[in-house]
Amino acid sequence: MKNYKNVFIFDHPLIKHKIAILRDKNTGMKEFRELIEEITTIMTYESMRGVKLVPVQVETPLEVTTQYKVPEESVAIVPILRAGLGMVNGVHKVFPTAKVGHIGMYRNEETLEPQEYYCKLPDGIENKTVFLVDPMLATGGSACDALDALKKRGCKDIKFMAIIGAPEGITKVAEAHPDVPVYVSTLDRGLNENGYIVPGLGHAGYRLYGTK
User: Which alpha helices (H) appear in the chain, and where do they start and end?
Assistant: First the structure.
């Protein structure tokens, strides 16, 4: 996979530790959900670099000083349903006032192409920094379609975050949306004949919620 200026692959020992447990087929549903949330929180700190700040006056016990804050109502989280829901709390731990929208996609198991079935977004999302989240970036089809849907609704400042990425999906998103920073916790080898990431971690939605 070639290097893309808008792609950021994390190389953090704590993430590697958590990914090892996440991949294990014996890791239970509760621990799996907690690990997805914890990894997302670590990723969010880095991906929020460059988020707009505004000056505010703060009175310390000693003096009044100018400091900087992320404006309220300036951040939104949009999980790609349903597995993306597992990442929402991880972002909320860093920015708890972020509004949440939802985009529903399912993969046609014959064509491997994504199908949109639901889209509900916060008012004024076009003026917010939007974190589009999905644990698995496999073929890149769902991510590209979700990014298209957000852009059609006026969103201009979008960041995409995935826990596990395959080179095929990363390449597709990076080339189709060069203006969108793509943050991936871990780069895997590729896709198998069924379009699943290998070595991967299995079906993320099933492991998060216990239903296929």
Answer: 13-23, 29-47, 85-92, 141-152, 167-176, 204-209
